[in-house]
User: What shape does this take?
Amino acid sequence: MIIIHHLEQSRSQRIVWLLEALGVPYQIKTYSRDPNTKLAPPELKRVHPLGKAPVIEDEGTVIAESGAIIEYILEKYGNGRLAPQTPEQKGHYRYWMHYAEGSLMPILVMSLIFSKIPEAPMPFFVRPLAKKLMKGVTDQFIAPQLRDHLAMIEHHLAAHDWLCGDTLTAADIQMSFPLIAMRPRLDPQQHGHIVAYLERIEQQPGYQSALCVVGPLKTL
Assistant: This one.
């Protein structure tokens, strides 16, 4: 049976959703973040050298990275479910599976890190400079990047109910984490199709089951 090593408030929520949607049995081991650093605890390094989450174990095989886990599960247990069927769908599928972690998440992580700068302990005379640095990076780089990313996703979803067409695929599961995390940044006037897309996600039985197991995500 698959064991999910789940770090609270992490990307592993989507692995739970995938397994719930496929009806694949699993066990879950939950880890709490360090209350000060918010990082994963040392125990996760006993499972994977980098202390990554999510991590799964399946019959002696240990796999980290959300995309790799999703591909492994679909190949072994999917039987064609939640997978693209046509060449066009496969093109969309590959793009969004890689885009989620390769392009969108780095911007969100950078935004999160810079938002924490004003709260970090530092000498009082450094704080004004740190705030100025944070504002400069946010205004000149992070915010414009996020606007461009959201505009691209909004444009795509204007023509598709799901990322690969008319049916839910694992690419939607992969993209769910960053988009749900970004929800407070969404303007219903500018991002109406993304908002509607997230509402469709939240109606999925597998997603609702995952929430019961690991709880809702905090937004960024």
